[in-house]
Amino acid sequence: MKKLSLAIALTLSILSTQAQTKSIPSTQVTETEEDKGLAKDYFSQIMGVAMSATSNVKLFQFVYDWIGTPYHLGGDTKRGIDCSGFAYQLYSKVFNTAIGNNSRNIFSMVNPVGKEELKEGDLVFFKIHSRAITHVGVYIGNGKFAHASSSKGVMVSYLADPYWTRYYYKGGRLLAEAPQNN
Asked: From its record, what is one biological process in GO terms (predicted)?
C-alpha cells in the first residue's frame, strides 16, 4: 500500500507541476478516477498485465500487497499462507464472498470455464502429481494467475509455463449463489 501511495503521490505531484508550467488542458476527471488510472498503469507495469478500463484495481492491489508472503500449509495470514487460504482471503477482501477452505471444496463452488474464456478473478485449478485437485490460483489476465506457491510463497505465474501447463486441470467462475460476507 505504501509503494502504491508513494507512486500515486509522486505521479500526481508531477502532473500538477506540469499543469502549472505547461498549460495542460484541465479535465473534469475526479481524483479517484485519476488514482484508479494511475494504479492501473502501475499494476500493468509491475505485474505485466494490460489492465482495461473494467479491470478490478482492488484485485491487483490485493495481489500486490501479498506478493512474497511465505507459504505455510494451512496458513491464512501474511505470516504464512497456502493456495486455498490465499484464494479465500482474496475472495473475502476483494469480492466480499466466502469460498471453500481447500482447493477441492472451492472447485465444487464454480462453473468450469475454458482456458480461453478466463476472466479476471476466475479461479484456476491444478492436479499436481495427483488425480485430485491439489492447487488453486486466481486468474489476473494475460495468461497470468496469482497463487501461493509451496516453494516461493505468493507470486504471479504464467499458465503457459510448461510446469503449470502440465498440471492445469480447469478454470472456474464462482456460481451466482455463492454466499456473501456480511
From this structure: proteolysis
